[in-house]
Amino acid sequence: MSDPTVLFSLAGRTALITGPVRGIGLAIARLFAAAGARLVLVDKDTEECAALAAELGGVAHAADLSDAAAIANLVALPDLQSGVDVLVCNAGIAGTPSAMHEASDAEREALYALNLLHPLRLCNAIAPRMADAGRGGSIVLMSSLAGLRGNARLGHYGITKAALAQLARNLAVEWGPHGIRANAIAPGLIETSWASGIIGNPDAASRRLGLTPLRRMGTPTEIAATALYLASDAGAFTTGQTIVVDGGTLITDGN
C-alpha cells in the first residue's frame, strides 16, 4: 500500500455523532471531519451544535437524547434513513457523585436514560438500516474506566458504562454477519470539564495520577484517535471489544 494513512480515511462515509459540542465528542467530530467524513451532529444544545456543523461542513439536529420520542423523531429524518455508515454514541452524564442508595429515583433514571438507553435505541434503529444498505458499518460506544472497576461515588454511572461494553459485544454478534462492527472505548481520566473536580484539587490530582503509570491525564484527541481507528478500515477486523485508553490506570498495582 503506497499510502497507509488511507486506512484511516472516512471519505465518502456519513458519521452520526451524539454529544459533539465539547470534550471528547468535539474532538471526535473534528478528527472525523479531517478524515473526510460527512457529519451528522446531534446534541440538545441547539446553537452550539449548529455552529459546529457549519464549521465542519456537516448537518446538525437538536434532540434530547434521554427522551425516547425525541430519538424516534430523530431517526425518522430523511438523512438518517439509510445513509449512516458510522454511529458514535458519545452523549452522556456522570450524575451527582453519591453512594448508590443515596441517589434518587429521578437521578438514577436520568443516568440510565441518557447513558444506556440512548445508545440502545439509536443502535436498534440504525444497525438494521446499515445492514439493509449493504455497506457494512461501525458502531462506537463511549464506555468508561468506571464501567470496569468499582467506584464508591459513581456506582450508577459505572453500571451504565459497563452495560455499554456488553451492548457492544451483543451488537457485534448480532450484526457481524452483515459486516457491521461494534466496539466500546473506556477512557480513563481525560482533560475535560468532567475531570474538573480532580484537576482543580491538587491532592486529588496527585493521588489519581500516582495510580496512572504514564503519570498524566489523557487528551480528548487521544480518545478521538481511538474512535477513528474503530470507525475506519484500520479497525476492519476489530469488533466486540472494549478498548481501554487510560494511561495504564486499570492494570497498575499503584507503584
Topology record:
Blueprint: E1 14-18, H1 23-34, E2 38-43, H2 46-56, E3 59-62, H3 68-75, E4 86-89, H4 105-133, E5 137-142, H5 155-175, E6 180-187, H6 196-199, H7 202-210, H8 220-231, E7 242-245
Parallel strand pairs: 1-2, 1-4, 2-3, 4-5, 5-6, 6-7
Helix pairs in contact: 1-8, 3-4, 4-5
A few lines on this structure:
This protein is an alpha/beta fold.
Structure description:
This protein is of the alpha/beta class. About 40% of the residues lie in helices and about 15% in strands. The chain is built from 8 helices and 7 strands. It has helices at about 25-35, 45-55, 70-75, 105-135, 155-175, 195-200, 200-210, 220-230, and strands at about 15-20, 40-45, 60, 85-90, 135-140, 180-185, 240-245. Strands 3-2-1-4-5-6-7 form a 7-stranded parallel β-sheet, with helices on both faces. Helix 5 (about 155-175) links the parallel strand 5 (about 135-140) and strand 6. Helix 1 packs across helix 8 (about 220-230), helix 3 (about 70-75) packs parallel to helix 4 and helix 4 (about 105-135) runs parallel beside helix 5 (about 155-175). The protein is globular.
Number of DSSP-assigned strands: 7
First-to-last CA distance:
42 Å
What is the general shape? globular
* Order of SSEs: EHEHEHEHEHEHHHE
Residue fraction in strands: 5-15%
What is the subunit arrangement here? single chain
Radius of gyration: 18 Å
Low-confidence stretches: none
Task: Please identify the structural class as seen in this structure.
Answer: alpha/beta
Helical fraction: 40-55%
Strand order of the largest sheet: 3-2-1-4-5-6-7
Averaged pLDDT, please? Answer: 95
- Biggest β-sheet, characterized? 7 strands, parallel
| SS element count, helices | 8
